[in-house]
Amino acid sequence: EGKKVPEDPGADTVDFPKRTTPAKGYELLFQPEVVRIYISLLKESKTPAILEASAGAIQNLCAGSWTYGRYIRSALRQEKGLSAIADLLTHDSERVVKAASGALRNLAVDLRNKELIGKHAIPNLVKNLPGGQQTPAKNLSEDTVVSILNTINEVIVDNLEAAKKLRETQGIEKLVLINKSGNRSEREVRAAALVLQTVWGYKELRKPLEKEGWKKSDFQVNLSNASRTQGGNSFDDSTL
Question: Where are the ARM repeats (predicted)?
Answer without folding.
Answer: 80-117
